[in-house]
Design brief:
This protein has 124 residues and is an all-alpha fold. Helix content is 71%, strand content 0%. It is built from five helices and no strands. It is globular, with a radius of gyration of 18 Å.
């Protein structure tokens, strides 16, 4: 499911992930395209173990992007169910919410990277 969310995040035309963020997701997804990865997929019982581990690692790395996208999907779904203000177009409310969530995503990622940097310096 995590892999599906990442793919939907890239292909969702209403989400419009900014280029740099989309590139991060695509680079992470590229690992799964390669059949001859760390443990070749054709090895019974073990072939997909490295893929499962990578999905978890990638999902952790892209946590802020995934959280923002899932919030956007929930917002979009809820907005469809409620009556909308005729003075605000669907595109306007999506643009507003998308910008808000993507801004939050970048702030959270920046804070996470700053904390990680502090921790790595403390461990050195």
């Amino acid at each position: 499911e995590k892999l599906r969310v990442m793919i939907r995040m890239i292909t969702d035309l209403e989400w419009r992930l900014p280029h740099d963020d989309a590139t991060r997701v695509l680079n992470a997804l590229a690992y799964f395209e390669e059949p001859e990865d760390l443990i070749p997929d054709n090895i019974p019982g073990l072939g997909y173990l490295d893929d499962a581990i990578m999905i978890e690692l990638v999902a952790r790395e892209l946590k802020h992007e995934i959280d923002a996208y899932q919030d956007f999907c929930e917002f979009r779904s809820a907005a469809r169910e409620t009556a909308s203000d005729a003075s605000v177009s669907r595109e306007d409310w999506l643009d507003s919410r998308r910008a808000e969530l993507q801004s939050r995503m970048r702030r959270r990622r920046k804070r996470h990277l700053q904390r990680s940097g502090v921790m790595s310096r403390l461990l050195d």
